[in-house]
Fold each of these.
Amino acid sequence: MRNHCPCSCHIIPPFVVDKLKEAGVEIPSQKTNNREFRERRDAKNALMRSEAFLVAPPVKKADRFVYDSKTTEHQRLLLVRKESGPASPDAVVNTVYENAGSVREYFKTFLNYLSVDNHGADLILNVHFGKNYANAFWDGDEMTFGDGDNQVFTNLANALDVTAHELTHGVVQYTANLTYKGQSGALNEHYADVFGSVIKQHAKKQKAATADWLIGDEIMGPALTGQALRSMKAPGTAYNNALMGKDPQPDHMDNLYKGSADNGGVHINSGIPNKVFFLVATAIETDKAALLWFETLKTLKPTTNFKSFKTALLKIAKKMANAGSVPATTETVAKQSFESVGL
Ligand SMILES: [Zn+2]
């Protein structure tokens, strides 16, 4: 089992944080490479490599545990809600508990996959992390949410797409383990956005044709009302304002970002496969497209790039269409969708 986490995967990209800083808004948001994180990760990696683990991986029940960081930067500080336990007086605790349950349920029911590792790993959720901390992240082990500054970003734990996005980074880690750099990193971000949007649409009972396809629209504070972090339907249009600058996502290979910022544009170039997913989902419906994408994920390698992703997905589309699990037109629709973004 591969479990190495290549990243601390944050929902708010570093280039947004930099733009805000230029605009005079300094919000704490990226601080996860400290000793506490590294030590816990190293200990877990050692356990996963141990012979006992490889022989008999423990199967668990994907129980949820919510911890309150009490505005410190410590994880697992105070356990405030656990599986089947009583609700908390803190609404944020209950919301993140329910949202993690929705993500777990979608993966289990529609994709036959239990928790992030398909072995029912506990879902650890930390809320109220840091002071006005404006980010949420998956660190290879657990989820952590800040409260936001309530001007630019509101509490990150309240949005289902944010929780689904971050937990999907966990799923990717335990499946294809896409390297968090360049095109494979953009595919990692892409998958996190796909299931962020898919699970939000499912919860809101939306259809592909009428869903908003926005990521992060519900965490925008009063200073950024009406904006979002990303648009899968129209990459490059999620935001355009004095605080954040303009959404840099391309929707075509002609505009592929080739610089080194953001780990080689992992949150930028994800716009290209995001657009492909939107096009396929509007043709065959979101849940069918989600199943196709998930079955493909299981066949990808850590170094998969956009081109090899297309090849892998078309192969799975053909197989699934033959088996009747997606419409017969799926391979053609997917091929045309990739072509329309220059792939
Ligand atoms: Zn991410």
Amino acid sequence: MKLSFYGAARSVTGSRHLIETPTSRLLLDCGMFQGRREEAARQNRELGFEPKSLSAVLLSHAHIDHSGALPVLAKHGFSGKVHMTRASADLAAIMLQDAARIQESDCAYVNKKERRRGMQCVRPFFDSDDVEAITRRFAGARYRDALKLEPRVTASFHDAGHILGSAAIRVKYTARGNTTTVLFSGDLGRANMPILRDPDPPPPCDILILESTYGDRLHEQAAEEMKKKAEALISHARAHKSKIIVPAFAVGRTQELVMRIKELVTESRIEPIPIYIDSPLAARATAVFRQHPECYDEETSKTFSADGDPFASRYIHFVSTVEDSKRLNAMRGPCVIISSSGMCEGGRILHHLKHAIQDEANVIVFVGFQAEHTLGRKLVEGWDVVPIFGVPTPRRAQVVKFNGLSAHADRHDLLAYIRAIDPLPGIVFLVHGEEKQALSLGAAIQAEHPALDVRIPHRGSTHDV
Ligand SMILES: [Zn+2]
């Protein structure tokens, strides 16, 4: 068997790993690179392997850094199937359509400027036709079912507890009575996340490909502490008729926040407060969440059967039209507005910030990682004047950050995941982490299991196993 790493190797985005056996070429994930525009564009156009040569693709989950280059495969003649869980198939379809739209409008914006400078036009690396072509190749599987991909190769999906439909993927290859098993963790979630079941214990494997996003970090803030902080914020909003503006990713994080606020209401810790979810993608994603109760944990299943819809409540409002979104600008609080993008780089959140940021009664709440150079990062860093739509805007609203909401396993969880594999695998490849994270986790694994072969692959490297 050969393993090659084409992305998310000593970095986080562009997850793409290839398993080759004498009879098959299986691609694990086909993610989009994100980061500096030109470098990312090149990595997204050139996959590093020939799409036509692939037998099949196995997708761990729908996040764009894992699924976002799938349409490029269709564009270049890939004609196999893309296997994933059923929930992932539904989520990936709407997220890829959204990604195509964003690319088309980004390119139109860049081209407008480039044409003025007499430069060549950029083209999206895929469009909505490519998205349609690849979604026709999607095959939804149930968790833990063994899929026969070829006479000697089977694959199965195991709950990863990261986002709806997320899975660790196990590939089993048998030849001359010998079986080799590869387990790819995908992105690992954490126990006790709202909505989702806890990650399945890892099945036995010979080779583990493990994510390392938080390889040198432990998550802060216990659940009870976060609840107290949210309680205080909502009481503040009530007393000062303020708006709580929450930039959040439309898929996963938004639904999680709704469930967390509902929980506070159910526990009578807060009075209901109007929540506006202002993102068409979040509305579409929530519809997918409703269609997949098989992914819920026990608590969410109970809510689902009690009121028919875990995401509905008289105080929760989905905002779809632009007019309704604009109406929120003039409205007075108290209310919570959840909108995207999560790092304030575009989308409707910018309008909400523009209208709310100069009022000291308002609060901007961050619930996720803010990358360098983004507006979100500037706000988290406490800048007093920030650019919104290119206009320097004074910030008077309070900024609050919640650190404990990550959907990723931390260092402690990752080490526990390896410990739970019985018997221990022979080789562990660490992927999906910045170099510093991967190296630190690698050293910790090696110290705990001296006999284990721990490797941190470089992008483009191939390993015989
Ligand atoms: Zn993910």
